[in-house]
Fold this protein.
Amino acid sequence: MQGAHGRVLYLDPFSGIAGDMFLGLLFDLGIDEATLVEELERLQVRFDLAVSQVNKSGIAAVNTRVTPPTGADEDENDLDHCCDCGCGECGHDHEHDHGGDDHGHVHSHPDHQDEPDEEPENEAVPHGQGLGIDEIFTILDRLTEPTRTKATEMFQSLIEAEAQVHGTSVDSVHLHEAGAIDAIVEIVGAVKGLELLGVDRVVCGMVNTGTGFVRMAHGTYPVPAPATAELLKDVPIQMDSFSETRKELVTPTGALILRHLVDDFTPVSMTVERVGYGAGRRNTNVPNVLRGFLGYSAAAEAPKRLVLLETNIDDMNPEFYSNLLDALYQNGALDVFFTAVQMKKNRPGTRVSVLGELHRKDVLVQALMRESTTIGVRVSYPERYEAERSITEVTTDIGTAHVKLATYKGEVVNVSPEYESCRRLSADSGVPLKEVYRMVMEAVGGSVAVSEEDA
């Protein structure tokens, strides 16, 4: 999901995130139900999807609930666990009911209802054989693109997380059918729902996971539960220890959404069009809702907060700097540069400067400490104004080349031939590289000087 000035969805998970909360948020923001149901019916699985408005601690929010169809066998109602390995986390949001039908149905109830009672704490429930990864992929293969590819990628990630946690192979992990169908409906609904809203970019704030413990088939485990924790890697989280949030606030399906559908975890500058709320199952003084802001980006006109790490080094083997540079980029650095400095006692030294996104700070500090001889790192938080960047293709007498365009506040401020494509043209044609650059700029029809980056 890329896009500069396109539609943006900003998530505010102050009370966590689950699959049903995210789907409820999308409904509250105005997705077309009929189109979503049409896509869900392609799954050819049994379920009912009920959509209703509820009140959560004074906030009107949309509640979604996947249930068995009317008259279906409800023996597998209220299943809190869906994995045959007994982990209790296999893509199943613990607050749901489950079930199926030959095709999906949506029941909308626009009037506000009382808050649903909080469901009981998770208990282990015995189950039979569930769905393996190949069976789930067969179901997902019935979808249209790009929903099919993204949903498949998300379930692959879920199964891999389960296998990692339990020290087993991917092929041995099975999801109990009711929980798997629940997760499938919510994940497909999430992916398709963003498409229906025309969202180009999803941005998210700090994620509250809650704390405490949750009961599962193998015993009692800390929050976030093991598979959820595995899926939350690289996601900025806070574990609020207040009594109101000593519960599980992020479910595996919620973690999948954060990992695969969120483009960035950073403050955002945007013009808000709509605000929506997806209801969770908890009843607490803090509203158990997922809040979302839908609007348009103003990124090109507002600065982006970054983190700048710096350290001065005078005792490191010069051969190590190349390795340090690679390690920092591998850990998510946006830019790394070295500056010659004079240090105390007139010793020549090197200042290492590392620019990165806010949520990568701890990882980058660790890389600096491990891969260099520094014993201290200075931290500051600069702002960066960014021009919007795009790639276009131009045709010359010797072939086509890529050109980078930089736009700020609607104005093209720089045109730069892309080095690698020009180098290939030069090598293939025998024309000197500087002449290729001139030909490309003439083809663009501009007179902007070539940037130093590509000179």
Q: What stands out?
A: The longest strand covers residues 270-279.
